[in-house]
């Protein structure tokens, strides 16, 4: 089959013919129809992000495809079914604290690297092998719709954060990083889950106005100034009442003061979700006041990805029309132009934009 292969960091992906994946028990072979190119894939492939990848590898985190072959332990799937392929692969021998690898992207720790040696290759190929529990049925869609359904992979990240925080309908949420690709998805996911209000801080007036245009007055934009105490008070004033949950998805380049200003807006007994990249590029850590956390009973959740059932639940929200995938504008490339797709994704990293490869 044809695939894009990363052979060394700092080199372009190479298009070549590789052996087809071999089916085993507990696995599904999927014909890949559409797959996302993350906006920072150029940083992964250059080595700048220092992601754990045992090269050479076919990259690509998840995607949309159809069942080509199933193992003997699958009882509901049928050849031809439309699927979302969840890239979050978990070890099967420790349900409490499984090792995790993101198929075709990275791995966490030695156990994650062991997983990556088997569920190694991702979706930048005509076919891929996926753990059976990682394929989620979509129901009937058209091939053209597959590109927009790739947005599930973006929306699942904040959805996992809000599930960890037990977000309830009617609550007020603040999204730190609301003007970014994952942050704007967090705004739409919070509203789909029933948030009464989403406070959306940022520096880009155009994007803030666009969030209000898309979602209405449940979104409360706040223009950040860079002054930590002033920004904290501005975000509090924008909310109609106490802020129940703060969700942070800021990238590694952002100062910790910006993140801290957002966190400190949460009410007593409130919840904070950390899913961003602060500190991953070095520099100062996130310095939060111990007495404030303790005396106000603040719950802080570090969250990486989402629980195993999250994808099916999010698909149901999209099918119900609560999560609007039609907000996303997809630009598609074929597999032969994968390097151009990586460049395009980096240059078009804004809210509700998708760069997609269609093998």
From TrEMBL:
Gene Ontology molecular function terms on file: oxidoreductase activity
Database matches in Pfam families: ADH_N, ADH_zinc_N
Start and end residues of each Enoyl reductase (ER) domain: 10-356
Superkingdom as given in the UniProt entry: Bacteria
Gene3D superfamilies on file: Medium-chain alcohol dehydrogenases, catalytic domain, NAD(P)-binding Rossmann-like Domain
SUPFAM superfamilies for the chain: GroES-like, NAD(P)-binding Rossmann-fold domains
InterPro entries recorded: ADH-like_C, ADH-like_N, ER, GroES-like_sf, NAD(P)-bd_dom_sf, Zn-ADH-like_protein
Name of the protein described by the UniProt record: Zinc-binding alcohol dehydrogenase family protein
């Amino acid at each position: 089959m044809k695939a894009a292969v990363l052979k060394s960091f700092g080199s372009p992906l190479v298009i070549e013919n590789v052996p087809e994946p071999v089916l085993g028990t507990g696995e599904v072979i999927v014909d890949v129809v559409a797959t996302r190119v993350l906006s920072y894939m150029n940083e992964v492939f250059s080595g700048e992000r220092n992601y754990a990848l045992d090269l050479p590898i076919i990259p690509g985190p998840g995607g949309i495809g159809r069942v080509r072959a199933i193992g003997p332990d699958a009882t509901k799937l049928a050849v031809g079914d439309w699927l979302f392929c969840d890239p979050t692969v978990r070890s099967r021998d420790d349900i409490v604290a499984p090792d995790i690898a993101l198929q075709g992207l990275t791995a966490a720790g030695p156990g994650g690297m062991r997983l990556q040696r088997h569920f190694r290759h991702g979706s930048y190929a005509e076919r891929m092998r996926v753990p059976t529990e990682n394929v989620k049925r979509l129901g009937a869609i058209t091939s053209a719709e597959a590109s927009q359904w790739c947005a599930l992979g973006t929306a699942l990240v904040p959805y996992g954060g809000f599930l960890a925080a037990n977000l309830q309908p009617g609550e007020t949420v603040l999204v730190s990083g609301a003007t970014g690709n994952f942050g704007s998805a967090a705004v739409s996911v919070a509203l789909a889950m029933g948030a009464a209000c989403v406070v959306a801080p940022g520096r880009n007036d155009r994007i803030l106005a666009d969030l209000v245009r898309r979602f209405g007055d449940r979104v409360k934009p706040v223009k950040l100034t860079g002054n930590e105490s002033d920004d904290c008070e501005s975000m509090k004033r924008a909310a109609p009442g106490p802020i129940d949950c703060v969700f942070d998805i800021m990238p590694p380049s952002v100062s910790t003061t910006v993140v801290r200003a957002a966190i400190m807006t949460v009410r007593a007994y409130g919840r904070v979700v950390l899913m961003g990249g602060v500190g991953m590029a070095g520099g100062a850590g996130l310095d939060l006041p111990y007495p404030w956390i303790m005396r106000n009973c603040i719950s802080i959740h570090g969250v990486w990805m989402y629980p195993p059932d999250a994808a099916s639940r999010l698909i149901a929200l999209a099918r119900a029309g609560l999560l609007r995938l039609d907000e996303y504008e997809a630009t598609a490339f074929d597999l032969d132009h994968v390097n151009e797709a990586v460049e395009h994704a980096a240059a078009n990293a804004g809210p509700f934009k998708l760069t997609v490869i269609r093998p």
